[in-house]
């Protein structure tokens, strides 16, 4: 698309121009990744969070009125996304240790840990209501986009493993995943809007 000032890129992105938005992503992705890695402490978690940040930014662009610098607004979105993700991880992993000790078969004292029932119920409910919609969205996507999402998030292959399977570079895998996740998110919003109109 060639060099273009940031204000113009933002306006084009608000109008749905994906190429303009990709220029904004290229401009800021290193800064967002640095922030995400500081919070997530793990490379793949950081990269996934970066993708989520830019999806949120794209979906929220119309709320950016230019009263502050775009980079400051983007930083706030990125920070909040990191904190949200850490809270989700904590909710998934949270366990309650009982004060009483119990004796196992070997005669050793052990603390009994039980999962936080609220967290478990939330996760079960969340997965139940989302499962059907996820399948509907994936069925609407192009085969290549659907496959790369399944390889990453269902099969849990690494970027390198996906690259080997698809005969492409890790950077290409990341780029394809970003686009596939972006389209998935758009379709999810459209589906949600359809339900709201019913």
Q: Give me the CATH architecture of the largest domain, please.
A: Orthogonal Bundle
> End-to-end span in angstroms?
40 Å
| CATH topology annotation of the largest domain | Rna Polymerase Sigma Factor, Chain: A
DSSP strand tally: 2
Taken as a percent bin, the fraction of beta residues is 5-15%
Please state the structural category.
mainly alpha
The number of distinct helices, counting runs of at least 4 residues, comes to 8
Low-confidence stretches: 94-105, 109-118
CA radius of gyration is 20 Å
Total domains: 2
Task: Identify the quaternary structure here.
Answer: single chain
Q: Report the average pLDDT across residues.
A: 77
Short description:
This protein is mainly alpha-helical. 73% of the residues lie in helices and 8% in strands. Strand 1 (95-103) and strand 2 form a beta hairpin.
Would you kindly provide a written description of the structure presented here, covering whatever features stand out?
- By secondary structure, the protein is mainly α.
- The protein has eight helices and two strands, in the order H-H-H-H-E-E-H-H-H-H.
- A hairpin with a 5-residue loop joins strand 1 and strand 2 (about 110-115).
Provide the descriptors you would attach to this structure in a database record:
198 residues, mainly alpha, Rna Polymerase Sigma Factor, Chain: A, Arc Repressor Mutant, subunit A, two-stranded antiparallel sheet
